[in-house]
Amino acid sequence: MKKRDLSRGFMFLVFLFFCTLFVGFPDARAQNEVIINTWGGAFLEAFNAVQGDIERVSGAKVKITTHPGAAAGLSRLIAQKDNPQVDLFTGIESTAFDGGKAGVFEELSPALVPNMVHIPKELVMPHGVSIWVSLRGIFYRADMVPFQIKKWEDLWDSRLKGKVATSILLDKGNFLIMAALLSGGSENNIEPGFEKVKSLKPNLVLFYKTDSESIKFLQAGEAAVAGWGILPNVYKLIGPGSDYKFVIPEKPQFLAPIPISLVKGRPHKEQSLKVINAILTKDIQEKIASHLGVVPSLPGAQSPEKIRDIVPALKNIYKVNWDVVNANFDKWLERWNKEIQVK
Amino acid sequence: MSLNLLLPGVLCLLLFGASLLSIGILSLRPERLAREGIGLNQYLRFFSDAHYLTYFWRSFKVSCYGTLLTLFLGYPVAYLMARSGGRVRLMLTLVLVVQFFTSYIIRAYALMLVLGNNGLINRMLMKIGLIDRPLPLMHNETGVAIGLIMVSLPFMIFPIYSVLKGIDRRLEEAAESLGAGEWQVFWNVTLPLSLPGMAAGIILVLLFQLTAFIVPGLLGGGYYDMVANFIYDQALGVLNIPFAAAVAMVMLAITLILVIGLNKLFQRSLKDVSA
To answer: Chains A, B: CB contacts under 8 A, how many?
Structure first.
């Protein structure tokens, strides 16, 4: 290769590098935008769909960025604590608690976000307010399961031998807590949960770490049942005539409030609070709910028709004590890996 | 002038060193969400429970025999590429290069569709009546090993191919003219001369398999998590970043020792070949 060709190639690489400075890092140009950090996929689509409405109601310019998962996003926030890159963060209840403890989130109250006054107290956390409620249950393929699944105990049915997948990481051990509740325990007494899940081992075929993984395994036919199913990502798969079914068993019932939290140390606090307030208005709540197949946090806002009949009443929902879970999850996971996730 | 040319490399090394240093510091944090304090708690915890070594044992075991199998499978392909005509070489190169244009996750997912209970292999074998229930090709060590070998084959083939291509054919012809058979020529001339390519391939593939995350995640079904999966669980599941960092540092130290050892071994072998 000639020397001139080499130097041309080098100059081209330098040119590409400078291009990425202007094109690849839009955050650097977006100084006046309120940045909302959320999941990709269906969640990003839902936020994109209401971005205009949020901007109109709040008067703030909004930009949506994604994180790979609530815990991963929070760990990034903790790492960037001295120089956070986002204003608002959506995660799950446990990450709102953990983030508060790690000092990355501001406290929220109706004095700061007026619409919070309408939100049921079960959906308000010290460092976050739920912007929708996601349904939890069993997601399965009717063409691979010889009966209609109705209750949690059905997962233990011998006809499901080698067909059930589950997860301890999703929702930080809620599957284990559910099993404990079925056997008279709870997160405060997890022993019965471990015993119960041990008895499920003949039916277990694999374990997933994320809900998108659970969908892939079901679609590939590697598992017939996702024992801990999360509705929004599978919402588009279910419906009349579909082989994919989602069931919310009675007792114990779980819902996952999805909190939005205000990140500490960002310059747009006032605008960010207005954005949260806007998200809690009826119109935007209903639009997000219809995109994701979730329940609006704001009472009076309508759930999408497809799920209206299966939404459990808030008073029946089991309220997980996240302080207990966060304090013990490390030990639970270790024990799970030693006793459950082995053949 | 020569110092200026070193600058980009030095900057990269500094950046790399800084991130390693920050992981090292994180590994010394005494508690899960702590941002202050220094201690060896995380390392003590790691070395106090033999269960954690399981992940290391799995990673080293599967990557050691996986690398060897990748070498045995990759060498003939590289040889064929180096010694065949333009069309065959182009076809093989295309097949291998296409892999680089496909996302790693997609490739692992595609393997799932081939190896799974409902996958291509099992369905085919059942259809022709060779088996009456699916072979357990996934959610176990076998699935992870097959996946790792398939995904890392190009990293073995290309370095060997580039060295084989550069071997002076007259050396082989000289051996043949002295009465050596085809197999003797290969064993005594070609194979030793291709050692640099094999060495590069072995180190690349070993490191790739040792640190694998997606393949054991998707093809192991949770039953064959390796070190990277364990680090992920600790960092992003439990948010215990200090412990995850400590495990990563231990892994780094062991890997460094392994790579340095292999390098020395290869250097000695290369010296013998040159002699």
So the answer is: 81
DSSP state letter for B225: -
Residues A231/A134, Cβ–Cβ less than 8 Å: yes
Best probe of the B interface among A97, A203, A209, by most B CBs < 10 A, is A209
What is the distance in angstroms between the Cα of A141 and the nearest Cα belonging to chain B? 14
* Three-state SS at B176: helix
Specify which residues A36 forms β-bridges with.
A64, A88
Cβ separation of B236 and A75 shorter than 8 Å?
Answer: yes
Tokens of A180: 């404990």
Q: Determine the CATH number of domain B50-274.
A: 1.10.3720.10
Q: Which run of H or E residues covers position A191?
A: helix A191-198
ipTM value, please give it: 0.79
Mark yes or no for CB contact A206/B238 under 8 Å.
no
Distance of alpha carbon B72 from alpha carbon A302, whole angstroms: 62
Answer for the pair A186, A177: CB distance below 8 angstroms, yes or no. Answer: yes
* Strand ranges for chain B from DSSP E: none
Give backbone dihedrals phi and psi of A257, rounded to 5 degrees, phi first.
Answer: -65, 135
Backbone angles phi, psi at B58, to 5 degrees: -60, -50
Domains of chain A: 33-134+256-308 (3.40.190.10), 136-254+318-339 (3.40.190.10)
Closest CA to B137 of B117, B109, B123: B117
Model pLDDT for residues A237-290, shown as the tens digit of each residue: 888 888 999 999 988 999 889 999 999 988 889 999 999 999 999 999 999 999
Distance in angstroms (rounded) separating the CA atoms of residues A23 and B156? 36
Contact between A291 and A307 under an 8 Å Cβ cutoff? The reply is no
d(CA A265, CA A80): 10
In whole angstroms, give the CA distance from residue B92 to residue A309: 56
Q: Which of B35, B119, B217 minimises the CB distance to A209?
A: B217
State whether residue B246 is helix, strand or coil.
Answer: helix
Question: Best of A208, A337, A339, A341 to disrupt the B interface by mutation (most B CBs within 10 Å)?
Answer: A337
Terminal Cα distance for chain A, rounded = 57
pTM (2 decimals)? Answer: 0.81
CA angle in degrees (0–180, nearest 5) for B164-B169-B173: 135
